[in-house]
């Protein structure tokens, strides 16, 4: 099992979670990001097994230098321009980071003989779901710039697997939530409003059914994919297999925070109030259960409860 892992996007929300989980179990970690967050830098004081690298994945020479200097044995790829709205606002940069950056990474792996990468991918690569619950064989026809760039990275990975024997394992996750989610999305918007004693009404999209997975379960799934000695598949759903509606999320927050005034209206959900979402649903996790032993610990209620209690703690200590 690889013990010196390079994590891209290490300052990011999921990347940092993955770095911490790897360090906690004793691995050596190299955290690469285009900018160093204070949380990432702070890890250096506690873990001599941690090294950080400020590098732009879009710059081939910087990626190669990181591999030359730190000699990773495997990679978790979490760096990206993330989100449907964000990527649509800066499509050229999204292509440069998500596609060119991934190819630079695969090339560096080829030159340095690194054989495994777990690429964090997304349900956005599917576009419109054709059923309430879908498995990993569902056609991938993205309807967003973000989904298209993430699909391109997956396909490049397949070519590098065929040509150069690099195993590129894709963990396709869905809407990940938990403490400090860095974007204004459900359930964060409801939780933040409820704790601040403010009202939040989502104008449309209450009936959107979408798989929502707690961050710790996502991180656990990524590590299982990283550790499995031999893979029969190159893609796994790391989600919950359930698709609660956005209205369910609001109801749970109302039940858990007495007096919370959060609600939704029916209609098509809009990303950032402007882009209609693709049709969503649940991601079947049977393959990940069987092949990886993945078993999510949080259903939506438990995940929101946990997020709330951590948010309350951080408000108390602020
Ligand atoms: N959060 C979710 O709900 C979700 C769902 C599905 C998939 N994903 C995937 O998980 C991964 C991490 O997402 P996140 O939510 O942590 O996002 P994030 O925005 O918090 O993290 C992304 C990180 O990538 C870094 N980055 C951007 N451009 C870079 C570059 N050129 N070179 C090096 N680093 C660069 C950013 O600085 C940031 O720290 C992404 O690949 C995303 O597509 C996230």
TrEMBL record:
<dbReference type="Pfam" id="PF01370">
    <property type="entry name" value="Epimerase"/>
</dbReference>
<comment type="similarity">
    <text>Belongs to the NAD(P)-dependent epimerase/dehydratase family.</text>
</comment>
<dbReference type="InterPro" id="IPR036291">
    <property type="entry name" value="NAD(P)-bd_dom_sf"/>
</dbReference>
<feature type="domain" description="NAD-dependent epimerase/dehydratase">
    <location>
        <begin position="5"/>
        <end position="231"/>
    </location>
</feature>
<comment type="pathway">
    <text>Bacterial outer membrane biogenesis; LPS O-antigen biosynthesis.</text>
</comment>
<protein>
    <submittedName>
        <fullName>UDP-glucose 4-epimerase/UDP-glucuronate 4-epimerase</fullName>
    </submittedName>
</protein>
<dbReference type="InterPro" id="IPR001509">
    <property type="entry name" value="Epimerase_deHydtase"/>
</dbReference>
